[in-house]
Every structure is written in C-alpha cells, then in structure tokens.
Amino acid sequence: MTWLVWRQYRASAAIAAALLAAFAALAVFTGLHAASVFQAAFGACLPAHTCRFPVDNVPLDGGPVGFIIEFTLAVPALGGMFIGAPLVAREVETGTGQFVWTQGLTRRRWLAVKVGWLLLAALAWGGAVGALVTWWSGPKNAAYANAFSPGTFDVQGIMPAAYSLFALALGIAAGTLTRRVLPALGVTLFGYFAVRLAVMGWIRQHYMTAVYATFSIGKNSSPASGGSWVLAQGFRGPNGPLAMPNGDNIAIVGNGFPVSLAPQACRAFASPGRAPAEGKLLSCLTSHGYTQYVSYQPAGRYWPFQFIEAGIFIALAAALVALTFALINRRDA
Question: Does residue 122 register a pLDDT over 80?
C-alpha cells in the first residue's frame, strides 16, 4: 500500500520538492542580504545593547520577496485543495474506490495508510517552509519588533506546519462528505480561510489574559514596548476610559491628549504647543486623576501563543480525520 501511495503521488512530491528548493534558494539569497543590511545599520549599537527598536526606516521587508513570504500563508490551503480534497472524492466520482475496497483491502486500512503518509508530508513541508521564513525574517523581527503582527505570526515558527495539517485534513473530510472534487475544493478554500480569519481576528488575543497597565499621563512611552501586542490603549479619567473626540482639527498636547477632554480646572493651562503651559496642563490632569492605559500581550508570550494556536489546529485536524474515518466506514460511503 505504501508503494501504491508513492506511485500515485510521486509527481506531486517532485513538484513540491522543486518548489521548496526554489523557495529555499530565494530565501537564503535575500536573507543573507537582509542580514548584511541589518548588520550595517545596527552593528555598532548591538554589542552595547543601545539599539532603540522598533525602527521602521531600514529596508528589511524584502520588497517583492516579502510578498512571496506572506503568500506562504496560502500554501496550506493549496495543499488541502489539490492533495486532500481529491483523495476520497475522486475515488468515489470515478468508482475506483469500490474496486479497491473489494480487493482484500479494507476501507480503514486504505484510508489510514494514505492519510498517514500525506499528513506526514504536509507536516514536513509546512515545517520546512516555516523554518525558512523564520530564519529569513530574523533581521526584520529584531528591527521592527512586530512578531505578533498577523502577516508575521502566521507564517513563522510552527504555525505553517499546523496550518498544513489542518488544511489537508479539511480537504480530505470535505471530499469525503461531498463526494465530488469541485465542491470539495470550494469547501476547503472557504473553510480554511474562514477558520483562519476567525482565529486571527477574535480568538488569538484571548489565549492568555491580557496585561492591563496604567501610567502617567505625561509619559510618551508605555509599558507595552519591545514587540508587545497592543490590544487597546488610550486615556482614563476619574470615572474610567475617555472616548476620543472625532474631527481633524482637535487640539492636543504632546502625548496626544485632546485638550477638549481636560476638566474645567485645567483649562487655564490648555495651550497646546507651548512647553511651559503643556507641562502645567499635564500636572493638573495628573492631580485630577487622569492617566494613560494600555492593554497588551507581552512579547515574551510569543512562543506560548504559537504552541496554543498550533494545538488548536492540530486538534481540529484530528477531529476532521476522525470524521473522515466515520464517513468512509459507512456502508454507502
């Protein structure tokens, strides 16, 4: 059975290996250039630990190569569509499945061997892509301090491997459920990105309880620094967070506080742009209980977040594989 799987997928394996080799060559060539740019920009301050990150005026995003790096987010979906979806659906459409399953080979063994090898291949492919992208992004991660950004977090570390497992399992389950290749392709594509967007937009930020901090209204920097993921920030008054006013011509002091929100007792010092008056205004606001606040996920939670999200997608993949086995073992499968 293993030999049969190899015969069926050796062309796909050769294409995947060639694409991975080309991507690796591109990543290594441009990654070494990015490393030299980073060293030229920060080589003097790194040994003394005096570099001030994030810095966004150093060209480390890779240009067109950066777009290719971000496009790797869609690679798992392609694997799920064109490898996973036809696995069962094509056999049912062409009727070859009934022939295979009557030759002394049970459905469960047929599915276990094929799914096992394909999941292993997806894990290896995703792991290789994730390792290359993580290495390539090293200088950019250090300079930009944006490891939690959606276009960065999702294509680095162990996430590509977890997404690949999920997408392939989703494709196999969709093909088994619909029994048609084209509908399975659509279900896989929509399902993959729907789940990914839901996790990225609403679920990820709640993996761990966010840190909430208040600090002086006169400070220009917050505790959420060094690559932290800022979820919310603003100003607080004596009665809670303040709603920022709308409009383009709002007078503000140096730290961005809208003068219109100052209490009446501090309005006498409301002279934006004048340092002495601005300092007195901020002192007055502090004495009346005004502060700044920030809600954030610290940068040190990056790897815990990676493992939590990878665990979610691995669990989803396992559930989809179990569903596939349940469907394929039905008499009318």
Answer: yes
Measure CA 311 to chain center: 14
Phi and psi at residue 298, to the nearest 5°: -60, 155
Among residues 292, 300, 276, 174, the alpha carbon closest in space to that of 236 is found at: 292
Question: Domain residue spans in the chain?
Answer: 8-209+304-328, 211-297
| Residue in 109, 161, 118 with CA at minimum distance from that of residue 6 | 118
Structure tokens at 79: 């694997």
Reported as a single tens digit per residue, the pLDDT across 230-275 is 999 999 999 999 998 886 567 788 778 888 888 988 888 876 556 6
Quote the pTM value. Answer: 0.90
Taking a C-beta distance cutoff of 8 angstroms, is the pair 211, 120 a contact? Answer: no
Q: Within a 13 Å sphere around the CA of 170, how many CA atoms are in the beta-carbon half? A: 29
- Per mean pLDDT, which of 14-23, 44-53, 95-104, 218-227 is the most reliable? 14-23
CA dist 23 → 28, 59, 74, 154 (Å): 9, 21, 14, 18
- Number of helices (H) and strands (E) in the chain: give both, helices first: 12, 4
Q: Are strands 291-297 and 211-216 parallel, antiparallel or unpaired?
A: antiparallel
What phi-psi label fits residue 290: left (phi over 0), alpha (psi between -120 and 50 degrees) or beta?
beta
Helices 85-94 & 159-178, crossing angle to 10 degrees? 20
Q: What is the pLDDT of residue 25?
A: 96
